[in-house]
C-alpha cells in the first residue's frame, strides 16, 4: 500500500509539472539568434522574418519584391522593343513591322530614329533604377531580420520617467551637493 501512495504522489507531481508547462506557450521565451536570422534572410527573402516570428512582415517583403520584379520586367521588355526598333530603322534593310506599330500618331517621319533612341535610353535607365531598387529591398529585408532579432529582448515598457533629486557626492575628499537627473527607460 505504501508503494501505491508513493506512485500516486509521483504521478501527481508529473501531471502538475506537465500542466504547468502546457499553460506557457512554447514561443513565450523564444529569443531569436540574430546571425541565424541574418543567414536565413540572405538565403531566402522573408525567411529571417519567419524565423523571428514576425509573419505580418511577409506580405510587405514579398509585395515589394513582386513590385520591383514587375518593374524590371516591364521596363526591360520596353527597352528591348525600342532597341530592336532603333536597330531596325538604322539598318541597311529596315523592317517596318518592327517599328511602325511603335510610332505615335502624327510624329514627323524624319525623326523616328531620335524618338526610338530617346525611348530606348529612358527605359534602360528605368530598368537600371528598378534593379537598384530590387537590391535595396532585398538588403532592407535582411537588415530588418537582423535588427529585429537583435532587439527582440529590448524592453518596450510604457514606464518612461525622469527623476530629479538632490545628490551628495565625494569630490577630492570634500562633500559636494548637486542635482542628479535620472531617466528611466
Characterize the structure shown.
By secondary structure, this protein is mainly alpha-helical. The protein has six helices and two strands; from the N terminus they run ααααααββ. It has a two-stranded antiparallel sheet. The two termini are 59 Å apart. The model has no long low-confidence stretch (mean pLDDT 82).
Number of helices: 6
Largest sheet: 2 strands, antiparallel
Order of helices and strands: HHHHHHEE
- Poorly predicted parts: none
Helical content stands at: 55-70%
Mean residue pLDDT: 82
How much of the sequence lies in strands comes to: 5-15%
Question: What is the approximate shape?
Answer: elongated
- Termini separation comes to 59 Å
Radius of gyration: 33 Å
Arrangement of strands in the largest sheet? 1-2
DSSP E strands, number:
2
Counting helices, strands and paired strands, the structural category is: mainly alpha
Summarize, please:
This protein has 185 residues and is mainly α. It is 61% helix and 12% strand. Strands 1-2 form a two-stranded antiparallel sheet.
